[in-house]
Write a structure and sequence with these properties.
By secondary structure, the chain is an alpha/beta fold. The chain has eight helices and nine strands.
Length: about 260
């Protein structure tokens, strides 16, 4: 299956014409590091652009998530729009209760979008909210010297409930500092209060092969495992440059099999 239209194309791509270049130019003029979220969002053009992408009926509490979406989208654009489409067999492997990373040292692109099979994974924005299908995750991974015991600052944003006829999306963000040499302990067996990690939590979902992300530990492990797979299976990566139909992305992407 070809990669689907991404949230970048549906929400953020129009910003490539004027807004993203203006943000970059302002950052250079002011001496701001546009790859640091705090400095990025203080830029005038970033603030004005944020007002353009937030839906009119958005909850005020969602502004921080849309700020993260703008930041993630800019990094995705600035670092070459790296899109990885993970097929179902790979996603199944990555969401087993246990996963062996051996002595792997964390490696990841500075920014990318990981897209998962349609309605394979489900998550929710809060414990009382309904589950929604996970389209994918934006990820920014940057080296940091702010803490002596960690070397990579990782920011992840899940995109839930993405549809071409929906004006907005549901967003859930997560961030942490990781020690690249001690990554296995964070992803081998992710934590869940009850039951196995990634087990289906939607009534009837077992028959459809659903898996759910119920904890930040599961989300973190999924991202780490995905990067491990990309790094250790170069022969399973296929670059695709042409869209198969109107519902497919037009961005060049890497099919992960």
């Amino acid at each position: 299956m070809p990669a689907r239209l991404t949230p970048y194309e549906l929400i953020l791509e129009p910003l490539e014409r004027e807004e993203f270049p203006a943000i970059r130019a302002e950052g250079e003029q002011r001496g701001s590091d546009v790859h640091r979220r705090d400095q990025f969002l203080l830029l005038g053009h970033a603030g004005a652009t944020l007002g353009e992408i937030v839906p009119e009926d958005a909850d005020p509490e969602s502004l921080d998530e849309y700020g993260e979406l703008l930041y993630q989208g800019y990094q995705f654009w600035a670092y070459g729009r790296r899109l990885y489409s993970l097929e179902s067999t790979v996603t199944t492997l990555l969401t087993e209760p246990e996963y062996d990373l051996s002595d792997w040292i964390f490696a990841a692109p500075p920014a990318c979008y990981l897209q998962f099979p349609y309605q394979k994974l489900w998550a929710r924005v809060a414990a009382e909210a309904p589950y929604e299908p996970l389209d994918g995750v934006f990820v920014v991974a940057a080296n940091t010297e702010e803490r002596a015991d960690s070397g990579v600052h990782v920011r992840v944003q899940m995109v839930l409930g993405l549809r071409s006829d929906r004006p907005g999306v549901s967003l859930v963000s997560y961030r942490d500092d990781l020690d690249p040499a001690k990554i296995a302990a964070r992803a081998t067996r992710p934590w869940r209060a009850e039951g196995l990690a990634y087990a289906n939590a939607i009534p009837g979902g077992e028959r459809k092969g659903y898996r759910t992300l119920a904890t930040t530990s599961e989300l973190e492990a999924l991202v780490i495992r995905a990067f491990h797979y990309l790094d250790t299976h170069p022969d399973r990566l296929e670059r695709v440059t042409d869209a198969a139909n109107e519902d497919a992305t037009h961005l060049p992407y890497v099919r992960v099999t």
